[in-house]
Amino acid sequence: MTGSESGFIELDGVEKVFEVRRKTGFMKRERRQVRAVDSISFRVASGEMVGYIGPNGAGKSTTIKMLTGILTPSAGRVRVAGIDPSRDRIRLAHRIGVVFGQRTTLWWDLPLIDSYRLMHRMYRIPDARYRENLDRLVELLGLADLLDVPVRQLSLGQRMRGDIAAALLHDPEVLYLDEPTIGLDVVSKAKVREFLRELNAERGTTVLLTTHDLQDIEQLCKRVMVIDHGRLMYDGPLTGLHEAGESERTLVVDLERELPPIEAPAPARVVRVDGPRQWLAFPAAESAAPLVAGIAARYPLVDLSVREPDIEAVIAKMLHPREEKPGDTSRDAPGQAAGNTPGDAPNPPERATT
Ligand SMILES: Nc1ncnc2c1ncn2[C@@H]1O[C@H](COP(=O)(O)OP(=O)(O)OP(=O)(O)O)[C@@H](O)[C@H]1O
Ligand SMILES: [Mg+2]
């Protein structure tokens, strides 16, 4: 059963085109094609934990639905654990687990435990294994006090944990998560992330994670894929994303006293001064060491820290390199390119040195 290729996810030139009909007037309908997924190819090795991100409508959920067999690709080839999902959906179901954060797979009116009992039978999980998995998941996800509560009475975070357990009762080799932290508070998010990290590390479960919370990705995934308008825009290490997006890190230095802006070698430059504290932006891909050494040699340095770039800004810049949003000046200074704000510096650079 567990051949050498099991756990692999393979997509080759996969497309999904939806036919949509729109009412354009009285008795008038227009047929239109939506290319939700546009010749996507990638491969995920067994045991990997990969982030699959992109803006609304990018095609993420459509991809996941093709990986489960819910949707059939319009073109291309999909294999999950060597299985063609749309042809062999039932057989594949025993090997994969799915969590759609926006919807529950649990029975709404039944106590949580009843959903698990139903899955025990549906998936024909051997009794001993079911017991063992249930005990483990109940403990790890803190579900003990919730088992007798009807699903509709669970809070969002409780229900999500319940859904994650449901997806894993049958020991799937692959887990697809479509926005598993949506609407969760910080503590619940941390619990879910911790659980996923352990699942991946200890059981080697392959995880494909779709989320709009980029902290999920930063804390869990070494590799990330960015999709936009159905196309794969980036596939590589999370760190490389910063280079692709030409992002900048921020060096924050505390000087002994208030001084004119530090003269740093380009492209490093001071973007903000506040009393003895100065903020310098420099390319994220470069080491901070020479910059720090140069400053330390010429200025009375008391303390320093480096701030990582905001990954959301990096992605925005990557997807819309030249786009400036004239109407969206709520966060950025006028005239400043979206996504160019270094770190969390609240002051626009124009005012930095005044
Ligand atoms: N069943 C469908 N029929 C027609 N169009 C669809 C269908 N499902 C999705 N689409 C369209 O395909 C595109 C991709 O949708 P998809 O749900 O995959 O996006 P997504 O990346 O998951 O977005 P979000 O972040 O909002 O969840 C959208 O334009 C959407 O309107
Ligand atoms: Mg979606």
From TrEMBL:
Residue numbers spanned by region Disordered: 317-354
Keyword DNA-binding: no
Topology within the bilayer: Peripheral membrane protein
GO MF annotation terms: ATP binding
InterPro entries (alphabetical): AAA+_ATPase, ABC_transporter-like_ATP-bd, ABC_transporter_ATP-binding, P-loop_NTPase
Extent of Pro residues compositional bias: 345-354
Highest taxon of source: Bacteria
Pfam hit, one: ABC_tran
Sorted UniProt keywords: Antibiotic resistance, ATP-binding, Nucleotide-binding, Transport
Record-annotated ABC transporter domain positions: 9-254
SMART domains the record matches: AAA
Protein localization: Cell membrane
Biased composition (Basic and acidic residues): 320-331
Protein name as catalogued: ABC transporter ATP-binding protein
Species, as recorded: Streptomyces dubilierae
Source taxonomy: Bacteria, Bacillati, Actinomycetota, Actinomycetes, Kitasatosporales
